[in-house]
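Annex B. Sample input.
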Amino acid sequence: MINHKKIYIDYFGYAEGDKILCEVCKYDCSNPLYFEKGLPPILREAVDIHHLIPRGMGGSKLRDYPENLMALCRDHHDKAESCKET
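Annex B, continued. Sample output.
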């Protein structure tokens, strides 16, 4: 298991093999504006653990801290990797 994934799982109390939901999908579905737009809740399983501060931009010092990690589905991870603002 990748080290940062193990850190994330241990910190948040997941067992290996537990289904972890994408943090962005969970936030979207809990946001009242989401329901006002009439959007159906979509909760996707996280497939990647994303570094909020990339290792190449100084995140290497923080890479082993849970505060620098976020569970994302493939769609949201691709968006985060392709857009500097996210």
